[in-house]
Amino acid sequence: MGQENGSRPSRVLVTGAAGRLGRLAVAHLSQAGRYQVIATDRVPLPDGVAADLTQPALQWAGLLEDVDAILHCAGHRGPDTTWREAQDLNLDMSLRLMMAARRRVSRFVFLSSNWVMAGHRFTEGAITADRDPDPINPYGMAKLAIERVGVALAEAGDFDFVALRIGMVIADPLEAARRLPSLRRWSQGMWLSGTDFCEGIEKALTAPIDSASVLNLVSDNPGTRWDISETMQRIGYAPTTGWQADVSEAQTRAEDTAARLNCCRGEIIRHLTAGSADGSDKAAARCVQILTRAEKGPKEPK
């Protein structure tokens, strides 16, 4: 079933269905009663299909038979992901799935991550989806690479593509109310409730789009730097929850210090790995600049 006129996909393949977000997605789409959901993961599922997408596509390509849309939740997650894990369990696996899905499915929805933009933690201004990417770890870099391949395949006419840069999902409102106040302002601002996550993925699967969209997905959090206006405009995302960050003055100062030190760490690594003879001197000078600035973190270059 094509989606050129915004028609609803009848058969949706959900990868990573045993994971936290995959389970949430499968439960929502199944309960909606509007889809035939094929849940898959490399571990056995009670009502799903076991398939290891890290293996050659010939072993699992039958999963795509008569599938209209893919919701790709599978992958190794988190900032501590190593380069090897990012390569094998995020990038390579996703590319295999994308290549197998070319001209077989109408839409490919990819759960990307806010880590693609994590370097903007140390800048100012709204974080829009079209702002320069700034991943700071292998996980974010792999997510960015997958986004760009998806956009290229969509531009080639292989399928429509939506990448959702997911915020910090705490699905249960009571748990969110307990945990969020202890987190930094940066983390509080990218809270995504379970209700809004489900709203976002369903709109990404069904809204009429033109080729490709890369969008932020957080709840409607007052004062957040994560801009969701384009998400609302492009796919009709309508969040119903939000969180007003509540951070004490002492916590704000501690957060500012941590941000500056973390930024210095990145500068030192960047200059030293560049291999230049004066790398250490440049890193030291940049760190002095960061630590003595009046504003919060380094400003973004003009």
TrEMBL record:
InterPro entries: Epimerase_deHydtase (IPR001509), Lipid_A_modif_metabolic_enz (IPR050177), NAD(P)-bd_dom_sf (IPR036291). It comes from the Bacteria. SUPFAM superfamilies: NAD(P)-binding Rossmann-fold domains. Residues 12-171 form the NAD-dependent epimerase/dehydratase domain. This is NAD-dependent epimerase/dehydratase family protein.
